[in-house]
């Protein structure tokens, strides 16, 4: 079972859909969307793919998790997109078959060397790659409790928010891309209450649900309480919970042949 079939990914997709729109808009500034061939890699439930299709592009959405593709295909406009169940780093799609590749908080979770090799292979010369990434913040109530309870990620392992470091992103892109742009943003996470925010972590966010599923009961309980305390610190007077998470939209153009 894919990590991303844990929980309810659509709850995450709904929260970050505005970033998907920004990714597609950024790509469209570099290459007009109407009649473009676009691939949405690690497309999840299709926010970026559907946005691109609505703008007149011919779109293929690729994701490793069939359950997410089924949700995407059932959305309004879903029948206008070709949905492919495949690893984003090994799609099996033809070489140089796309004008644009996009990804909304998707490809950042894939091993970067393999991912960049596949993106470069799929794009035509002069093609555009636009994607979003989380940027590491000094405080993050969705991540800090994991470090507090389980310890830091082992040195040398890939972390999605490494893409949020401009030097790292540029170094990974330079072999096959130029005209690199990195634009920062702040994403508002909002919930009706602390209980709702904790439920998002324990029942909906696939990454968190997967982590909790692999812990023994006492450790899992400690982690949930750490999330509760971290999220409670962001509770407003009306009981709602809200905080901002930094992100970036990165775009680059494939080297000419």
TrEMBL record:
Residues 39-131 form the Methyltransferase type domain. One of its GO terms (molecular function) is S-adenosylmethionine-dependent methyltransferase activity. InterPro entries: Methyltransf_11, Methyltransf_Superfamily, SAM-dependent_MTases_sf. It comes from Mycolicibacterium neoaurum. PANTHER family: METHYLTRANSFERASE. Keywords: Methyltransferase, Transferase. This is UbiE/COQ5 methyltransferase. Gene3D superfamilies: Vaccinia Virus protein VP39. It comes from the Bacteria. The keyword Transferase applies. Pfam families: Methyltransf_11. The keyword Methyltransferase applies.
């Amino acid at each position: 079972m894919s990590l991303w079939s844990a929980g309810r990914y659509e709850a995450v997709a709904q929260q970050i859909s505005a970033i998907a729109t920004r990714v597609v808009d950024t790509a469209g500034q570099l290459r007009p969307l109407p009649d473009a061939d676009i691939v949405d890699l690690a497309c999840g439930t299709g926010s970026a793919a559907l946005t691109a299709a609505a703008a007149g592009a011919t779109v293929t959405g690729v994701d490793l998790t069939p359950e997410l593709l089924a949700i995407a295909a059932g959305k309004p406009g879903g029948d206008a997109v070709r949905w492919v169940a495949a690893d984003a780093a090994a799609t099996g799609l033809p070489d140089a078959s796309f004008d644009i590749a996009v990804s909304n908080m998707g490809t950042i979770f894939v091993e970067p060397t393999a991912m960049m090799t596949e993106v470069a292979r799929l794009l035509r010369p002069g093609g555009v790659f636009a994607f979003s990434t989380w940027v590491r913040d000094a405080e993050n109530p969705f991540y800090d409790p994991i470090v507090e309870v389980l310890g830091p990620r082992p040195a040398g392992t890939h972390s999605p928010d490494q893409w949020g470091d401009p030097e790292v992103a540029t170094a990974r892109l330079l072999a096959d891309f130029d005209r690199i742009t990195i634009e920062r943003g702040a994403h508002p996470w909002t919930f009706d209450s602390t209980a709702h925010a904790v439920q998002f972590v324990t029942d909906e966010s696939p990454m968190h649900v997967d982590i909790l599923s692999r812990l023994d009961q006492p450790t899992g309980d400690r982690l949930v309480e750490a999330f509760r305390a971290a999220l409670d610190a962001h509770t407003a007077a009306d009981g709602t919970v809200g905080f901002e998470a930094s992100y970036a939209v990165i775009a680059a153009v494939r080297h000419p042949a």
